[in-house]
């Protein structure tokens, strides 16, 4: 009787073990399916982050291009203006030198006051700062990627304590 009871107990445990083995074998299939699904989710999330970064990079490059174009326009305008002013000044200087070479003192006296006023006016037009660039060659733009890089390096999975399954999310801090 005792042996029969013991055998029944062992038999029940054997049945439980067979059922457990079936569960484990089914779990292998589930793990493989869930693994593929999880990998796809991970790839999709990382691709989404990369796409967002690529879009932001394009926006930043547009800003740099606009700043560069602005600086080039300012410098080209300044070159044009300075070149025109220099031509006027050079032409006036050449004319004055020819007048100074003139042998007729009375003719010189007739136009000297007007030339002096014109030369003085021309000199006044070269105001302080006229021969300084309006923009510098450097860009006053700084991209701080430190916190983003730190966040990327800390990117990991969340797992609830005491839970038997991994939470299917990537830890992302707002960027």
Automatic annotation (TrEMBL):
| Keyword annotations of the record | Coiled coil
Q: Any idea where the COS domain is?
A: 100-158
Recorded protein name is: Tripartite motif-containing protein 67
Which species is listed as the source?
A: Xenoophorus captivus
């Amino acid at each position: 009787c005792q042996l029969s009871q013991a055998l029944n107990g062992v038999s029940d445990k054997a049945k439980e073990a067979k059922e457990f083995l079936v569960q484990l074998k089914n779990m292998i299939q589930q793990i493989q399916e869930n693994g593929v699904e999880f990998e796809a989710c991970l790839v999709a999330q990382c691709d989404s982050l990369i796409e967002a970064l690529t879009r932001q990079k394009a926006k930043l490059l547009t800003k740099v291009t606009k700043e560069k174009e602005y600086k080039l326009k300012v410098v080209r305008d300044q070159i044009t203006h300075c070149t025109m002013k220099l031509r006027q000044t050079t032409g006036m200087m050449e004319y004055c030198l020819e007048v100074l070479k003139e042998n007729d003192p009375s003719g010189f006296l007739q136009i000297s006051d007007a030339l002096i006023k014109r030369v003085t006016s021309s000199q006044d037009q070269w105001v302080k700062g006229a021969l300084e660039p309006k923009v510098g060659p450097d860009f006053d733009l700084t991209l701080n990627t430190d916190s983003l890089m730190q966040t990327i390096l800390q990117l990991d999975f969340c797992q609830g304590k005491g839970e038997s399954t991994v939470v299917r999310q990537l830890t992302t801090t707002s960027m």
